[in-house]
Amino acid sequence: MAKQQQYKFCFGPWNISEGQDPYGPPTRIPQSFDWKLDQLKKLGFDAMMFHDDDAVPDIDAKSAAQITAEAKALKKRLNDAGVKAEMVAPRLWFHPSTVDGAYTSNDAKCRKYAIERSLRAVDIANVLGTNLLVLWLAREGSYIRESKNGRRSFEFLVQALDKMLAHDSRIRLAIEPKPNEPMDQAYIPTIGHALAIAQLTRDPKRVGCLIESAHAILAGLDPADEIDFAMLFGKLWSLHLNDQNGLKFDQDKPFGSANLRVAFNQVRALERNGYGRRGEYVCFDVHPFRTTKEEHWLAHLDNSRRTFQRLVEKARTFDEKKAQAFVAQRDYAALDQMAIEHLLGAA
Ligand code: XUL
Ligand code: MN
Question: What digits encode the pLDDT tens for the residues 137-151?
Fold first, then answer.
Protein backbone atom coordinates (compact mmCIF):
# COMPACT_ATOMS: atom_id res chain seq x y z
CA MET A 1 0.00 0.00 0.00
CA ALA A 2 1.33 3.48 -0.88
CA LYS A 3 2.60 5.43 2.11
CA GLN A 4 -0.05 7.80 3.39
CA GLN A 5 0.74 11.46 2.96
CA GLN A 6 1.58 13.45 6.09
CA TYR A 7 0.51 16.98 5.27
CA LYS A 8 2.41 20.16 6.20
CA PHE A 9 0.43 23.29 7.01
CA CYS A 10 0.87 27.02 6.68
CA PHE A 11 -0.83 30.41 6.70
CA GLY A 12 0.16 34.06 6.26
CA PRO A 13 0.26 36.98 8.70
CA TRP A 14 -2.76 38.48 6.89
CA ASN A 15 -4.81 35.47 8.01
CA ILE A 16 -4.78 36.87 11.55
CA SER A 17 -6.69 39.92 10.34
CA GLU A 18 -8.38 42.69 12.28
CA GLY A 19 -11.90 42.64 10.85
CA GLN A 20 -12.06 45.73 8.63
CA ASP A 21 -14.18 45.57 5.48
CA PRO A 22 -15.33 48.24 2.99
CA TYR A 23 -18.15 49.15 5.39
CA GLY A 24 -16.49 49.13 8.76
CA PRO A 25 -13.25 49.64 10.67
CA PRO A 26 -11.18 46.97 12.46
CA THR A 27 -12.82 45.13 15.33
CA ARG A 28 -9.59 43.78 16.83
CA ILE A 29 -6.41 45.63 17.83
CA PRO A 30 -3.54 44.79 15.41
CA GLN A 31 -0.77 42.59 16.78
CA SER A 32 2.90 42.63 15.81
CA PHE A 33 4.44 40.27 13.29
CA ASP A 34 6.41 38.57 16.10
CA TRP A 35 3.17 37.85 17.96
CA LYS A 36 1.71 36.31 14.81
CA LEU A 37 4.80 34.17 14.27
CA ASP A 38 4.55 33.01 17.88
CA GLN A 39 0.90 32.04 17.39
CA LEU A 40 1.76 30.10 14.24
CA LYS A 41 4.34 28.17 16.19
CA LYS A 42 2.03 27.56 19.15
CA LEU A 43 -0.62 26.22 16.79
CA GLY A 44 2.00 23.80 15.42
CA PHE A 45 1.93 25.01 11.82
CA ASP A 46 5.07 24.32 9.75
CA ALA A 47 5.49 27.38 7.54
CA MET A 48 4.43 30.95 6.89
CA MET A 49 3.49 32.62 3.60
CA PHE A 50 4.63 36.18 2.95
CA HIS A 51 3.66 39.13 0.86
CA ASP A 52 6.86 41.03 0.06
CA ASP A 53 5.87 43.79 2.49
CA ASP A 54 4.92 41.29 5.22
CA ALA A 55 8.59 40.26 5.04
CA VAL A 56 10.00 43.78 4.56
CA PRO A 57 7.53 46.44 5.73
CA ASP A 58 7.52 49.76 3.88
CA ILE A 59 9.35 48.05 1.03
CA ASP A 60 8.92 50.88 -1.50
CA ALA A 61 11.00 53.23 0.65
CA LYS A 62 13.96 50.81 0.79
CA SER A 63 16.91 50.07 -1.49
CA ALA A 64 17.59 46.57 -2.84
CA ALA A 65 20.48 46.26 -0.34
CA GLN A 66 18.25 47.28 2.60
CA ILE A 67 15.56 44.85 1.47
CA THR A 68 18.06 41.99 1.40
CA ALA A 69 19.45 42.93 4.82
CA GLU A 70 15.97 42.99 6.38
CA ALA A 71 15.02 39.72 4.70
CA LYS A 72 18.17 38.17 6.22
CA ALA A 73 17.15 39.34 9.69
CA LEU A 74 13.71 37.81 9.15
CA LYS A 75 15.24 34.55 7.95
CA LYS A 76 17.17 34.34 11.21
CA ARG A 77 13.96 34.86 13.22
CA LEU A 78 12.26 32.13 11.19
CA ASN A 79 15.20 29.77 11.70
CA ASP A 80 15.16 30.44 15.46
CA ALA A 81 11.43 29.69 15.51
CA GLY A 82 11.87 26.55 13.37
CA VAL A 83 9.40 27.93 10.81
CA LYS A 84 9.89 27.77 7.02
CA ALA A 85 8.87 30.43 4.50
CA GLU A 86 6.51 28.76 2.04
CA MET A 87 6.37 31.51 -0.60
CA VAL A 88 6.68 35.22 -1.26
CA ALA A 89 4.05 37.20 -3.22
CA PRO A 90 4.54 40.76 -4.49
CA ARG A 91 1.66 42.93 -3.27
CA LEU A 92 0.80 44.63 -6.53
CA TRP A 93 -2.42 46.34 -5.55
CA PHE A 94 -1.75 49.03 -2.91
CA HIS A 95 0.79 51.40 -4.43
CA PRO A 96 -0.41 54.39 -6.52
CA SER A 97 1.60 53.00 -9.46
CA THR A 98 -0.69 49.96 -9.58
CA VAL A 99 -3.96 51.90 -9.75
CA ASP A 100 -4.40 50.93 -13.42
CA GLY A 101 -3.26 47.36 -12.83
CA ALA A 102 0.29 46.13 -12.39
CA TYR A 103 1.92 44.32 -15.33
CA THR A 104 -0.87 45.45 -17.68
CA SER A 105 -0.97 49.13 -16.73
CA ASN A 106 -1.31 51.48 -19.67
CA ASP A 107 1.59 53.53 -18.26
CA ALA A 108 5.04 52.13 -19.09
CA LYS A 109 6.52 53.64 -15.88
CA CYS A 110 3.91 51.83 -13.82
CA ARG A 111 4.53 48.51 -15.59
CA LYS A 112 8.22 48.99 -14.82
CA TYR A 113 7.40 49.61 -11.15
CA ALA A 114 5.38 46.37 -10.97
CA ILE A 115 8.18 44.35 -12.55
CA GLU A 116 10.91 45.92 -10.39
CA ARG A 117 8.87 45.25 -7.29
CA SER A 118 8.37 41.63 -8.36
CA LEU A 119 12.13 41.22 -8.84
CA ARG A 120 12.67 42.45 -5.27
CA ALA A 121 10.10 39.87 -4.13
CA VAL A 122 12.17 37.19 -5.92
CA ASP A 123 15.25 38.44 -4.02
CA ILE A 124 13.34 38.16 -0.73
CA ALA A 125 12.22 34.62 -1.60
CA ASN A 126 15.85 33.71 -2.20
CA VAL A 127 16.95 35.00 1.17
CA LEU A 128 14.03 33.32 2.94
CA GLY A 129 14.98 29.98 1.40
CA THR A 130 11.99 29.41 -0.86
CA ASN A 131 11.97 29.28 -4.67
CA LEU A 132 8.23 29.88 -4.91
CA LEU A 133 6.86 33.26 -6.00
CA VAL A 134 3.05 33.51 -5.91
CA LEU A 135 1.35 35.91 -8.29
CA TRP A 136 -2.18 37.04 -7.54
CA LEU A 137 -2.78 39.84 -10.01
CA ALA A 138 -5.62 41.58 -8.16
CA ARG A 139 -6.67 44.35 -10.52
CA GLU A 140 -6.32 45.33 -14.14
CA GLY A 141 -7.42 48.96 -13.90
CA SER A 142 -11.17 49.47 -14.01
CA TYR A 143 -11.65 46.74 -16.58
CA ILE A 144 -13.37 49.02 -19.01
CA ARG A 145 -12.97 46.89 -22.14
CA GLU A 146 -12.06 49.85 -24.30
CA SER A 147 -9.34 50.99 -21.87
CA LYS A 148 -7.07 48.06 -22.61
CA ASN A 149 -6.29 45.80 -25.48
CA GLY A 150 -6.70 42.23 -24.18
CA ARG A 151 -4.10 40.79 -26.51
CA ARG A 152 -1.55 43.44 -25.55
CA SER A 153 -2.34 42.80 -21.86
CA PHE A 154 -1.56 39.10 -22.27
CA GLU A 155 1.67 40.01 -24.03
CA PHE A 156 2.59 42.33 -21.13
CA LEU A 157 1.87 39.52 -18.68
CA VAL A 158 4.19 37.15 -20.53
CA GLN A 159 6.91 39.83 -20.68
CA ALA A 160 6.64 40.36 -16.91
CA LEU A 161 6.80 36.62 -16.17
CA ASP A 162 9.83 36.35 -18.48
CA LYS A 163 11.64 39.13 -16.58
CA MET A 164 11.13 37.25 -13.29
CA LEU A 165 12.27 33.94 -14.80
CA ALA A 166 15.37 35.61 -16.26
CA HIS A 167 16.20 37.37 -12.98
CA ASP A 168 16.68 34.08 -11.15
CA SER A 169 17.20 30.71 -12.78
CA ARG A 170 15.72 28.81 -9.81
CA ILE A 171 12.58 30.79 -9.13
CA ARG A 172 9.23 29.08 -9.83
CA LEU A 173 6.16 31.21 -10.45
CA ALA A 174 2.81 30.00 -9.11
CA ILE A 175 -0.05 31.99 -10.62
CA GLU A 176 -3.07 32.28 -8.30
CA PRO A 177 -6.09 32.87 -10.55
CA LYS A 178 -9.19 34.69 -9.36
CA PRO A 179 -12.05 35.71 -11.65
CA ASN A 180 -13.21 38.83 -9.81
CA GLU A 181 -12.78 41.07 -6.76
CA PRO A 182 -11.61 43.75 -6.51
CA MET A 183 -12.47 43.82 -10.24
CA ASP A 184 -15.50 42.43 -12.05
CA GLN A 185 -13.25 40.57 -14.51
CA ALA A 186 -9.67 39.36 -14.64
CA TYR A 187 -7.28 38.32 -17.38
CA ILE A 188 -6.27 35.11 -15.59
CA PRO A 189 -9.50 33.84 -14.02
CA THR A 190 -8.91 30.07 -13.94
CA ILE A 191 -6.20 27.42 -13.77
CA GLY A 192 -6.65 26.75 -17.48
CA HIS A 193 -5.71 30.36 -18.23
CA ALA A 194 -2.72 30.22 -15.87
CA LEU A 195 -1.32 27.04 -17.40
CA ALA A 196 -1.92 28.28 -20.93
CA ILE A 197 -0.07 31.55 -20.34
CA ALA A 198 2.78 29.53 -18.81
CA GLN A 199 3.37 27.96 -22.23
CA LEU A 200 4.19 31.34 -23.78
CA THR A 201 6.98 32.12 -21.33
CA ARG A 202 10.71 31.55 -21.81
CA ASP A 203 10.63 28.59 -19.36
CA PRO A 204 7.17 26.97 -19.07
CA LYS A 205 8.57 24.35 -16.68
CA ARG A 206 8.98 27.04 -14.02
CA VAL A 207 5.48 28.48 -14.30
CA GLY A 208 2.73 26.67 -12.43
CA CYS A 209 -0.21 27.56 -10.27
CA LEU A 210 -1.84 27.89 -6.89
CA ILE A 211 -5.51 26.99 -6.44
CA GLU A 212 -7.65 28.83 -3.94
CA SER A 213 -10.96 27.08 -3.22
CA ALA A 214 -12.94 30.34 -3.01
CA HIS A 215 -11.48 31.66 -6.27
CA ALA A 216 -12.50 28.49 -8.13
CA ILE A 217 -16.01 28.71 -6.67
CA LEU A 218 -16.23 32.38 -7.72
CA ALA A 219 -15.40 31.22 -11.27
CA GLY A 220 -18.35 28.84 -11.05
CA LEU A 221 -16.02 25.82 -10.96
CA ASP A 222 -15.59 22.90 -8.60
CA PRO A 223 -12.22 23.35 -6.87
CA ALA A 224 -11.74 19.56 -6.89
CA ASP A 225 -11.80 19.58 -10.71
CA GLU A 226 -9.30 22.44 -10.75
CA ILE A 227 -7.03 20.37 -8.48
CA ASP A 228 -7.26 17.29 -10.72
CA PHE A 229 -6.61 19.42 -13.81
CA ALA A 230 -3.56 21.23 -12.36
CA MET A 231 -2.12 18.01 -10.95
CA LEU A 232 -2.51 16.17 -14.25
CA PHE A 233 0.01 18.71 -15.56
CA GLY A 234 2.22 18.44 -12.43
CA LYS A 235 1.59 22.15 -11.85
CA LEU A 236 -0.11 22.46 -8.46
CA TRP A 237 2.68 23.97 -6.40
CA SER A 238 0.62 25.54 -3.63
CA LEU A 239 -2.92 25.60 -2.36
CA HIS A 240 -5.17 28.06 -0.49
CA LEU A 241 -7.96 26.08 1.09
CA ASN A 242 -10.94 28.05 2.36
CA ASP A 243 -14.67 28.28 1.60
CA GLN A 244 -17.15 30.52 -0.10
CA ASN A 245 -20.91 30.80 -0.09
CA GLY A 246 -21.72 31.14 -3.78
CA LEU A 247 -20.93 33.91 -6.25
CA LYS A 248 -20.45 36.85 -3.93
CA PHE A 249 -17.43 38.75 -2.60
CA ASP A 250 -14.40 36.68 -1.62
CA GLN A 251 -15.32 35.41 1.83
CA ASP A 252 -12.27 33.38 2.87
CA LYS A 253 -14.39 31.30 5.26
CA PRO A 254 -12.88 28.43 7.24
CA PHE A 255 -12.30 25.34 5.12
CA GLY A 256 -15.53 23.31 4.86
CA SER A 257 -17.63 26.06 6.46
CA ALA A 258 -20.04 26.60 3.54
CA ASN A 259 -20.01 23.25 1.75
CA LEU A 260 -18.55 20.21 3.46
CA ARG A 261 -19.11 17.97 0.46
CA VAL A 262 -17.17 20.28 -1.88
CA ALA A 263 -14.40 20.34 0.76
CA PHE A 264 -14.47 16.51 0.96
CA ASN A 265 -14.02 16.24 -2.78
CA GLN A 266 -11.06 18.65 -2.71
CA VAL A 267 -9.38 16.44 -0.12
CA ARG A 268 -10.13 13.33 -2.21
CA ALA A 269 -8.57 15.03 -5.24
CA LEU A 270 -5.44 15.94 -3.23
CA GLU A 271 -5.16 12.39 -1.92
CA ARG A 272 -5.58 10.69 -5.30
CA ASN A 273 -2.99 12.97 -6.92
CA GLY A 274 -0.42 12.73 -4.11
CA TYR A 275 -0.39 16.43 -3.19
CA GLY A 276 2.45 17.10 -0.74
CA ARG A 277 4.76 14.39 -2.06
CA ARG A 278 7.11 17.02 -3.50
CA GLY A 279 7.06 19.08 -0.31
CA GLU A 280 4.02 21.22 -1.18
CA TYR A 281 2.18 22.77 1.76
CA VAL A 282 -1.53 22.93 2.57
CA CYS A 283 -2.13 26.64 3.24
CA PHE A 284 -5.30 28.10 4.66
CA ASP A 285 -6.16 31.51 3.18
CA VAL A 286 -8.93 32.03 5.73
CA HIS A 287 -9.96 35.04 7.79
CA PRO A 288 -11.61 35.32 11.20
CA PHE A 289 -15.20 36.56 11.07
CA ARG A 290 -15.53 40.30 11.72
CA THR A 291 -17.52 39.42 14.85
CA THR A 292 -14.69 37.27 16.28
CA LYS A 293 -13.46 38.33 19.72
CA GLU A 294 -9.72 38.61 20.32
CA GLU A 295 -9.72 35.54 22.56
CA HIS A 296 -11.03 33.46 19.62
CA TRP A 297 -8.78 35.08 17.04
CA LEU A 298 -6.99 31.92 15.87
CA ALA A 299 -9.93 29.53 15.87
CA HIS A 300 -10.51 29.74 12.09
CA LEU A 301 -6.95 28.45 11.46
CA ASP A 302 -7.08 25.62 13.94
CA ASN A 303 -10.62 24.73 12.82
CA SER A 304 -9.67 24.69 9.12
CA ARG A 305 -6.77 22.31 9.79
CA ARG A 306 -9.00 20.14 12.01
CA THR A 307 -11.69 19.93 9.32
CA PHE A 308 -9.02 19.13 6.73
CA GLN A 309 -7.63 16.31 8.86
CA ARG A 310 -11.10 14.91 9.55
CA LEU A 311 -11.80 14.97 5.82
CA VAL A 312 -8.53 13.15 5.12
CA GLU A 313 -9.82 10.39 7.42
CA LYS A 314 -13.16 10.48 5.57
CA ALA A 315 -11.41 10.25 2.20
CA ARG A 316 -9.29 7.31 3.37
CA THR A 317 -12.25 5.42 4.83
CA PHE A 318 -14.60 6.00 1.89
CA ASP A 319 -15.54 2.53 0.63
CA GLU A 320 -14.16 2.80 -2.92
CA LYS A 321 -15.16 -0.77 -3.82
CA LYS A 322 -18.75 -0.14 -2.90
CA ALA A 323 -18.65 3.22 -4.69
CA GLN A 324 -17.27 1.56 -7.85
CA ALA A 325 -20.03 -1.06 -7.72
CA PHE A 326 -22.62 1.74 -7.72
CA VAL A 327 -20.77 3.39 -10.63
CA ALA A 328 -20.81 0.09 -12.57
CA GLN A 329 -24.57 -0.14 -11.99
CA ARG A 330 -25.03 3.54 -12.91
CA ASP A 331 -26.75 3.82 -9.55
CA TYR A 332 -25.63 7.37 -8.85
CA ALA A 333 -28.54 7.95 -6.48
CA ALA A 334 -27.08 5.28 -4.19
CA LEU A 335 -23.58 6.74 -4.66
CA ASP A 336 -24.88 10.20 -3.78
CA GLN A 337 -26.53 8.94 -0.60
CA MET A 338 -23.44 6.90 0.26
CA ALA A 339 -21.29 10.06 0.15
CA ILE A 340 -23.80 11.96 2.29
CA GLU A 341 -24.04 9.21 4.90
CA HIS A 342 -20.26 8.80 4.98
CA LEU A 343 -19.92 12.49 5.79
CA LEU A 344 -22.71 12.34 8.36
CA GLY A 345 -20.97 9.45 10.15
CA ALA A 346 -22.62 6.81 12.28
CA ALA A 347 -26.16 7.69 13.39
C1 XUL B 1 -6.63 37.37 -2.61
C2 XUL B 1 -5.73 36.33 -2.14
C3 XUL B 1 -4.35 36.78 -1.78
C4 XUL B 1 -3.29 35.88 -2.31
C5 XUL B 1 -1.87 36.29 -2.04
O6 XUL B 1 -7.90 36.92 -2.85
O7 XUL B 1 -6.10 35.19 -2.02
O8 XUL B 1 -4.25 36.87 -0.39
O9 XUL B 1 -3.44 34.60 -1.77
O10 XUL B 1 -1.55 37.50 -2.61
MN1 MN C 1 -5.15 33.28 -1.70
Answer: 999 999 899 999 999
